[in-house]
Amino acid sequence: MNPAVTILLAQALLLGAPCASSQASKSSLPGGAAPGASPAVRVSVADSCASLDVRGEVAAAEDIVAAFARQEGWDPALARGTFDAVEVFDTQDALWRRVLSLNSLPQDTPLPTSGLVAGIEKRVFVVVCPAEYLRLNPEYARRTESWRRLLAHEIAHRLHVNTLAGNDDAMGPVWFFEGFAVLAAGQNLDEGLAYPDVKEALAATKEKGPLAYRRFVAAVRLLAARHPLKELVAKANEAGFEEWLQAPGR
Ligand SMILES: [Zn+2]
Q1: Predicted local distance difference test score (pLDDT) of residue 20
Q2: Which residues contact 233 (CB under 8 A, 6 or more apart)?
Q3: Separation of 107 CA from ligand 1 center, angstroms?
């Protein structure tokens, strides 16, 4: 297994994270390929959600992340063309078997996280049908536009990597890059949760238990209100990032 995949899957297991492995694919190229809605993107959809407008949802998700990129001062093209195919599965098990085959791993490799619902692996966008998302993750999936926002979350990880010139080892701590993706996707998982200061926000990112992404995005949202997100992204992988965030005057 590619070390990045191993590490991310292990982290996902600990955190109950919904992503396959945010850093697994090193193949995103800024603006390199056609937009998600393009006929050039191959789409395959399981029978149980065949009525979904997958191309439309993917296009809307790309638009969400491109608008976020523009708002934060990045080239919106960095959010586009980050995959060549979209595959929608009716079960988590089918999705996991596809993730394993894309990464040339044995098919009997155990699922690392019960919350796995989507990912972009080797430029293939894999995701479960909305009904399976709801079954696996009702707290997040019952929200308005949750499936579209889930797609946007995965695209947001590729945007993040593209802002780092493709270096997916520079995304910073898990809480930071997952909070970034939730924020960029407009998933609003932190509704009703706001921390009074940076110290509490960072402490909350270390808490164990369900709904970790809710705490992660609340922390990132607080930090993004105090610093340009570009600055946070640039510093997130530096040693002492969290100390810098808590330094007097910040
Ligand atoms: Zn994620």
Answers
A1: 54
A2: 160, 163, 164, 172, 180
A3: 23
Task: Give the pTM.
Answer: 0.87
How far apart CA 83 and CA 125 sit, in angstroms, is 6
Q: Which residues contact 75 (CB under 8 A, 6 or more apart)?
A: 30, 31, 69
CA of 183 to the centre of ligand 1 (A): 11
Paired residues of 222 in beta bridges:
none
Structural tokens at position 114: 């019960």
Residue 33 token pair: 């390929």
Contact 150, 131 (CB under 8 A): no
- Ligand 1 centre from 212 Cα, in Å? 11
Profile the chain (250 residues) by mean pLDDT over runs of 10 residues. 42 44 39 54 96 96 98 98 97 97 96 92 97 95 95 98 96 97 97 96 95 96 97 97 87
Q: What residue type is assigned to position 85 of the chain?
A: A
How far, in Å, is the centroid of ligand 1 from the Cα of 222? 19
